[in-house]
Design brief:
Number of strands: 0
Helix content: over 70%
Distance between the termini: 18 Å
Number of domains: 2
Strand content: under 5%
Structural class: mainly alpha
Shape: globular
Number of helices: 21
Oligomer: single chain
Radius of gyration: 22 Å
Largest sheet: none
């Protein structure tokens, strides 16, 4: 957890500050043009993996044949989808009415083939719990690719700076993984191995595909209806709000999945771990998101400039929705551990029609209400996921809500204090600085008063370490 936390913190902080630099060098429309391709690349990436990485981690008796079969399958799918995107590039450009997307699509899609060479290497390191190695490699890759992106943006390459940053970053990461992992596939493909892996991964593929389409559909709809600049503003707001949520979610899920599958038959142990995995991320995440919503305007002005101010109301709404993100994924992760990908698929088939209905019903009201609908669905998804967690482990919606109510109440009190405190200042820098300091102090004080379990657990760990 320490290594993965360090990796996620370092890479996300680096990407965050790099994105701030590039946001000052590039226009919102530059981000919007590249963002329009997100849904196509995400769908291709979902098919490329097909749940094989998760299947390999979950499989108890995996062999070299299994690894090689998964490797060649990933590569074949990546090449097939690159051909599809290469041929479809003119249609994509026509759909968005942006001619430059023809060449941009054909270049950025190369990342699919490049990344296909690294999926199994990364999976093997994860299975062997080599999180320290993965952390170092990830930071190095981000540093090099970010340097390339900033250099190109400074030289006036516009959207192409983002394109080459993505493609070259993936190539560098793949090259380093091949050098470090020291694994090469056998020249063989087993149909029997494929059937076993696909038996687990197929349901995960379907659920991931539905989720991927929904997750990227907002960019597609906003790009088609409102234009590239609005895509840039939405993606910037979503990027700010998703940074802490995704960091904590990835950190927790990446570590606990390969560990928990080792005692997947011990329900009591799973429940104990689940409570800790639920409380600790939420204790850290809730104040960050609520505080970000409270100081959204000065934060955006200071970090990216006034040209990004239209994203402020989107950011504030999305912060409250993404609060449920870790809980949603942790609930699903327990179903993966139990091998119940059928329930994961069933959940997606129930939830996503509701999500699509909310999305399309909000389009006539503008981007702000699209964000409101997205935040509302995040809570709805959490509620549905709790249903099967309750059936499998006996730890459902009301027990989980009871765990986080004190944190939410404490964070709401913090927002009121921060809003009052920053009202005495005119400078955006002063507002941001004072807001952060007041927020941290008031939230920690509240946690001490109501005796937050995660705070006591962290303190006991520090005492044992020292």
């Amino acid at each position: 957890m320490a290594w993965t936390g360090a990796e996620r913190l370092a890479t996300q902080v680096l990407r965050f500050f790099i994105s701030l630099v590039m946001a000052r060098l590039l226009a919102p429309s530059d981000y919007g043009v590249v963002g329009m391709l997100a849904i196509f690349l995400a769908i291709a990436g979902t098919f490329q993996d097909s749940g094989f990485a998760a299947a390999l981690i979950q499989k108890k008796d995996k062999t070299e044949v299994d690894y090689s079969t998964a490797f060649f399958f990933n590569l074949a799918v990546a090449m097939a989808f690159y051909g599809v995107l290469f041929a479809a590039a003119p249609l994509i450009a026509h759909f968005y009415k942006v001619p430059d997307l023809v060449s941009i699509t054909r270049v950025v899609a190369l990342g699919l083939i490049i990344n296909a060479f690294s999926v199994i290497q990364q999976t093997r390191l994860t299975i062997n719990l080599k999180f320290g190695t993965l952390a170092i490699l990830s930071v190095l890759s981000v540093l090099v690719s970010s340097t390339i992106g900033i250099t190109l943006a400074y030289r006036g390459y516009g959207a192409w700076a983002l394109v080459w940053q993505s493609v070259l970053g993936g190539a560098i990461n793949t090259l380093i993984l091949w050098c470090v992992a020291r694994w090469h596939p056998l020249l063989m493909f087993s149909v029997e191995s494929f059937r076993k892996l696909f038996g687990f991964g197929s349901k995960l593929l379907c659920s991931s595909l539905i989720n991927t389409i929904y997750g990227n559909l907002y960019t597609l709809v906003i790009g088609r209806v409102f234009g590239p600049a609005e895509v840039g503003h939405f993606n910037r707001a979503n990027g700010f709000a998703a940074l802490p949520a995704d960091t904590l979610t990835d950190m927790v899920l990446k570590v606990n999945y390969p560990i928990l599958v080792r005692f997947q038959d011990d329900t009591l142990q799973l429940i104990t771990a689940y409570r800790r995995l639920l409380r600790t991320p939420m204790f850290l995440l809730v104040p960050v998101l609520f505080g970000m919503a409270a100081v959204a305007e000065p934060m955006v002005c200071v970090l990216t400039g006034e040209k990004w101010l239209p994203c402020v109301p989107f950011l504030q709404v999305l912060c409250f929705g993404l609060m449920w993100n870790p809980l949603t994924h942790i609930n699903l992760n327990l179903l993966y551990v139990k091998g119940r990908t059928d329930l994961v698929l069933k959940l997606e088939l129930i939830k996503k029609p509701i999500a699509f209905l909310i999305l399309f019903s909000m389009i006539p009201f503008g981007i702000f209400w699209l964000c409101v609908g997205k935040a509302a669905y995040d809570f709805i998804a959490f509620c549905f996921n709790c249903h099967y967690t309750n059936k499998v482990l006996g730890y459902g919606f009301w027990r989980q809500i009871k765990e986080i109510i004190p944190m939410v109440a404490n964070a709401l009190a913090m927002v009121l204090i921060v809003t009052w405190g920053i009202g005495f200042f005119d400078s955006n820098v002063a507002k941001l600085t004072v807001g952060v300091l007041i927020g941290m102090g008031s939230y920690l004080l509240g946690a001490v008063i109501y005796r937050e379990e995660s705070l006591r657990y962290a303190w006991n760990m520090i005492r044992r370490r020292t």
